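FORM 12-B: Structure-to-Sequence Request
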């Protein structure tokens, strides 16, 4: 666990008069500003329908000021339209001037290159820049990683980063760096001119032959010359390969998922401030947001073996770090679980871990070492009531799946239940038996995996 930051009261809320806590770490505000600035290019801005008034962004204006601003905007637009009309009427007269030539009217090469990009917004242009090189993508990833290392009092910035990752994972059209990688092909244009090297080699060989005939050839001279030749050529190959790798930013979806799983786990590994309710609420909310994305990945996203193993390892470490505590501390919070982060996350953590383990085994092979790790972690947390509850629900669901696949029997809709339901209808009249109807498929996350 990361040590708990030192939170101090920085101000009080003007409406509720509640104390607002944060840390006095150096450069914390600068870090948050950089993170918010970078996130602003990846989150889609909300449409703004009202008139734009410079210097009044983010403020709610009265209706009379909005109407006045709208009238000013319309008047400016009408002036611009009139100016355009006068320009069009004077343009034919200017075309008869001797200084007017055809070349002046033709667009330049630079303007031709930018015709395709004229429709791009500022945000799209910045996104293209950040997605143009692997080093730029690594920069974005590192800034987002730093967001997960912030103190919990800066949860607002964390939520924006989580929202960005959520959009990347859930949207069908992935960013360029999440698309599958292409093979790196080094063309001849990337390499030095071979002809010059060959001519130089031929001249060197002729010189060596003459030296042999004259008896003046030395082994050191031949060795140094060949090493210099091979070194320069290999260096050129290496530089070309590095440049091609820098331009090839397609890392694939699985690599981004693994980075997100590892970096987002830092939120769970921050020691909670259980004594400060506002910060505890923020910490709980952030952890549940991350767990919801994990659950979406487990149920909806196709993952390879390495990503599944990464998910299970992180869930094991997070569950152990958050929930494992001395027996005295556990007894101290008995009946007050809602006042601790561990008590609030026990149920969701066990549920996510167990269902993820089942889904992983249905898709990939899980090693014996991981199974032993699961047994060790769960055996050390048996004092949590939530573990027994979630395990019971899982065994119930497994029993229903086995009965359906082996015996074609739906345990949620047994024949005897139908008979008892019909008897109830006869005795109590029509419409009363609806309370005995059972849903065959539970939509909860803990049983959703059984639909496959």
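FORM 12-B RESPONSE
SEQUENCE OUT:
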């Amino acid at each position: 666990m990361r040590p708990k930051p030192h939170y101090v009261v920085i101000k009080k809320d003007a409406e509720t008069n509640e104390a607002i806590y944060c840390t006095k770490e150096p450069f914390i505000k600068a870090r948050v500003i950089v993170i918010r600035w970078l996130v602003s290019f990846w989150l889609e801005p909300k449409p703004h329908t009202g008139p734009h008034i410079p210097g009044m962004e983010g403020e709610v204006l009265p209706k009379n000021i909005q109407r006045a601003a709208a009238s000013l905007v319309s008047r400016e637009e009408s002036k611009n339209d009139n100016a355009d009309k006068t320009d069009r009427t004077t343009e034919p007269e200017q075309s008869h001037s001797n200084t007017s030539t055809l070349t002046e009217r033709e667009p330049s090469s630079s303007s031709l290159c930018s015709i395709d990009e004229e429709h791009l917004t500022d945000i799209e242009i910045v996104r293209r820049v950040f997605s143009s090189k692997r080093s730029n993508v690594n920069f974005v990833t590192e800034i987002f990683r730093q967001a997960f290392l912030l103190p919990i009092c800066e949860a607002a910035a964390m939520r924006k980063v989580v929202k960005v990752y959520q959009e990347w994972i859930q949207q069908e059209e992935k960013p360029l760096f999440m698309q599958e990688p292409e093979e790196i092909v080094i063309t001849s244009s990337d390499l030095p001119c071979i002809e010059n090297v060959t001519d130089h080699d031929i001249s060197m060989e002729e010189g060596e032959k003459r030296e042999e005939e004259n008896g003046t050839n030395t082994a050191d001279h031949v060795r140094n010359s060949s090493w210099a030749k091979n070194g320069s050529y290999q260096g050129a190959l290496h530089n070309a390969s590095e440049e091609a790798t820098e331009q090839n930013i397609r890392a694939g979806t699985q690599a981004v998922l693994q980075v997100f799983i590892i970096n987002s786990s830092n939120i769970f590994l921050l020691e909670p401030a259980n004594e400060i309710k506002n910060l505890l609420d923020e910490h709980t909310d952030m952890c549940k947001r991350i767990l919801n994305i994990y659950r979406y990945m487990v149920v909806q996203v196709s993952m390879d073996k390495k990503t599944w193993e990464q998910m299970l390892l992180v869930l094991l470490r997070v569950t152990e770090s958050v929930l494992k505590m001395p027996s005295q501390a556990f007894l101290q919070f008995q009946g007050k679980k809602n006042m601790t982060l561990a008590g609030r996350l026990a149920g969701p953590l066990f549920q996510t871990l167990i269902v993820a383990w089942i889904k992983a085994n249905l898709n990939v092979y899980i090693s014996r070492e991981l199974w032993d790790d699961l047994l060790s972690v769960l055996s050390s947390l048996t004092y949590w009531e939530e573990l027994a509850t979630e395990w019971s629900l899982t065994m119930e669901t497994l029993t229903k799946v086995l009965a359906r696949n082996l015996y074609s029997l739906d345990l949620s809709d047994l024949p005897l239940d139908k008979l008892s339901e019909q008897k109830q209808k006869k005795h109590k009249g029509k419409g009363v038996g609806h309370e005995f109807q059972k849903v065959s498929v539970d939509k909860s996350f803990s049983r959703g995996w059984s639909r496959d």
